[in-house]
């Protein structure tokens, strides 16, 4: 199965975009496989927040900066919830804020930089990443390393049945889920084992999602470790 997995209704995240025209409050809609956002009358859609493509023609007043049709030269901030396990209170939803900086068009037809920082708002205070990262995977792993003792993030990034293709991954949402092939995935020890199992994945998931099949990942398991 190669489709995208998502859980529940589309999620609506309060968002703020800052660009050459100033600050604009909006909503980032996450449908599991597609992100949608309206910026000053311009509608954007994309499989990832770092590649939001303009739908239709740009507005004449305060047009967005584009790189081959994708939004660029701006900062997108949004607030979502993630599941966590707290030592004293058990399972709960915790606010997570993200700040994504999209750079300017570069000669190689891409943009010159992509960097995301995260803040997890715990009851005892804020835990945040140290430096901007190029993907949600790296940012979440950095965040997890900084969590206080007794606190665990319960999301696909830390699940026992998720992995990335050895050829690489995108900014968000290219994580494969093997929840329907748990025993087979537990036997994966290297990339060749993962190649053999890849086409039997249950689908793709976003790193911050959580489902009833979640199981805490142990260090050194699967291809990604």
Question: Helices, strands, pairings?
Answer:
Elements: E1 11-19, E2 22-30, E3 35-39, E4 42-46, E5 53-55, E6 66-67, E7 70-71, E8 74-86, E9 90-102, E10 114-122, E11 125-128, H1 136-145, E12 152-153, E13 162-163, E14 175-177, H2 182-186, H3 191-197, E15 203-205
Antiparallel strand pairs: 1-2, 1-8, 2-3, 3-4, 4-5, 6-7, 8-9, 8-12, 9-10, 10-11, 13-14, 14-15
Description:
There is one protein chain. The chain is 10% helix and 37% strand. It is mainly beta. Strands 1, 2, 3, 4, 5, 8, 9, 10, 11 and 12 form a 10-stranded antiparallel sheet that branches. It has a 3-stranded antiparallel sheet with strand order 13-14-15, with no helix packed on it. Strand 10 and strand 11 (125-128) form a beta hairpin. The two termini are 23 Å apart. The model has no long low-confidence stretch (mean pLDDT 93).
- The count of strands amounts to 15
Helix proportion: under 10%
**Main sheet specs:** 10 strands, antiparallel
Series of H and E elements: EEEEEEEEEEEHEEEHHE
Measured distance between first and last alpha carbons: 23 Å
Strand content: 35-45%
Number of helices: 3
The secondary-structure class comes to: mainly beta
Shape descriptor reads globular
What radius of gyration results from the CA coordinates? 18 Å
Low-confidence stretches: none
Average per-residue pLDDT, rounded, comes to 93
């Amino acid at each position: 199965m190669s489709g995208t997995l998502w859980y529940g209704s589309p999620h609506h995240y309060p968002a703020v975009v800052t660009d050459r025209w100033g600050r604009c409050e909006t909503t980032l809609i996450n449908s599991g496989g597609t992100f949608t956002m309206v910026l000053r009358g311009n509608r954007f859609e994309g499989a990832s927040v770092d590649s939001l493509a303009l739908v239709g023609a740009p507005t004449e007043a305060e047009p967005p900066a584009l790189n081959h049709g994708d939004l660029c030269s701006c900062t997108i901030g949004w607030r979502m919830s993630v599941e966590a396990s707290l030592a004293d209170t058990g399972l709960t939803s915790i606010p997570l804020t993200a700040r994504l900086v999209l750079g300017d068009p570069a000669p190689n037809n891409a943009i010159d930089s992509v960097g995301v920082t995260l803040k997890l708002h715990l009851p005892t205070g804020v835990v945040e990443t140290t430096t901007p990262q190029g993907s949600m995977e790296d940012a979440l792993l950095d965040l997890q390393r900084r969590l206080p003792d007794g606190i665990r993030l319960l999301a696909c990034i830390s699940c026992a049945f998720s992995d990335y293709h050895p050829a690489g991954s995108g900014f968000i949402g290219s994580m494969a889920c093997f929840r329907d092939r748990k025993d087979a995935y537990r036997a994966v020890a290297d990339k060749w084992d993962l190649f053999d199992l890849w086409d039997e994945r249950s689908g793709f998931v976003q790193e911050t999602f959580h489902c009833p099949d979640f199981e805490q990942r142990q260090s050194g398991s699967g291809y990604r470790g």
